[in-house]
Amino acid sequence: MEDAVKKAQLPQSGREMQIQEALKMCRVFFVNAGIFSAFLNILYLAPTIYMLQVYDRVVPTRGFATLGLLTLLFVAAASTIAVLDLIRTRLFVIASQKLDVQLSGRIFDALMRAGASSGTVTNSSLMREFDQLRGALTGQGMLALFDLPWAPIYIIVCTILHPLLGLFALVGGLILGLLSWLNEKVTKAAIQKVVGANQSLFQAMDSALGQAGVIGALGMRKAFVRIQISERLTSNLISARAGLQTAVITSFVKAIRLMLQSLALGLGAYLVISQQMSPGAIFAASLLVSRALAPIEMVTAAWKSLVQARAAYEQIGLLFDGVGPTPQRTWLPDAQGRVSVEGVSVASPARDRLLLQGVSFGLMPGEMLGIIGPSGAGKSTLARALVGIAPLVNGSVRIDGAALIDWPERQLAGALGYVPQEPTLFRGTIKENIARFQETFPGEGGLDAEVVRVAQLSGVHEFILRLPHGYDTELTYNGSGLSVGQAQRVALARALFGSPCVLVLDEPNSALDAEGEMHLIRTLAELRKQGVTIIVVAHRAGILADVDKLLVIRDGRAEMFGPRKDVMERLSGGKAVVPQETPEKASKD
Length: 589
Known about the structure:
alpha/beta; 12 strands; AAA+_ATPase; membrane; nucleotide-binding; ABC1_TM_dom; ATP-binding
């Protein structure tokens, strides 16, 4: 009893919270499909009964009326079989759609959370595997699994006709079952390799397609096509080997079932000749044996898809177990913008080295910090850590005393504004990108008013109005359709949406012209007056002229931190200087 209580008190895994919960909501469809399967398999006895009655009653007595009535009953039974089979298939289709509604969003959310927590791009092929799992729900394998429990019933009916027929069907079923088990043992490892190879293949393809423009500009397209072809050949070879292994056993199963069906006819003839059965039982025996063995054959034929579906289930389960359910945080008082960075360390994606080591500093609301240092020092990594993108190995980032992980996700998003080193926009309208794809916004004027306000504040309102459709101009894949400078200014407007109290800018002026940079400087000055805490990573001097404090990062460590004047004097050996502008944008940290 105590063990049961302890088990009940343990937190559920992500798999139990997500997949099993979704499957429970689909349970009613599977239960109804099982009920329809019962009626179907009972009606499948109709051809056997019809044949027995025709040979044993109609033919000897020449009963035309009996034949007509039997035929009408058989046609009605066959028609009912068609209707029930259609309804059962429809139930599986509805269950598949229901599962998609319940899980597809959760899987995508988990993929994004997994990518955010690891700092790497997650494999989108998991969504394709989920589609394969859903497809298995409506395939022949699932239908066979629902018919499989009725195989013993048909064997019992064979036994009623004659014990030898029952024994024959039982032995045949055991042989096919043994082959199916052997098929599972032989192909399990191969199919798992197929799943892994497909994941790697699609991940490489997604990565290449996402950088198609750069690949083409550098003349690497043919090389990437060659690499893709090579990887596909490897994946297809693994898949072909698994398919051939399955095909060998499936072919044997088909041949053995056909042989058993014909031998059942011969056994029935023998029993009739021996006067142990009526003549009508000859064909009835063949039909019953065939029906008893058909689900086993169908399961064997569909085994590869069933195993792949099972593998997809496991992969999705591992994803949910890894990220767990979305934590429910207590809503905190509105953030004021006090930032504390306490001993922050960040590891590389491979976790073989530290990109940041023990970085600490603090800012009060309304202060502006400039982060400088050589390329590759870890400045962009620190910027990502400040907004919760880069996972921390040690230390914490706090806003108003609360660690980032303690803030509710929606509340933290409203308190933070972030412009990444590369202005990442998304497919959709400019308005949707600026509004962070929100559909509503509280306050006077609503969403449109807020979008226009931050666009005017960031200096993009005028150029947006000159676009063919203004704020409703559609951007394509990766937000393409704007110049890099325009995209950077739209990204700034997006960061300002909702009036965040902390703004993190990673080289926000790298693609701006002189006019754009001057407007950016004026915007930052206005935000400081409003009490917004601003953190800027920069290589160009103009934007650092009015910062309150400077942080110098070198080799992932905080080398200097303090008021701008003091830090610049230390850097110059006592002579106040400002950083020199670099002609080109520094490489990504």
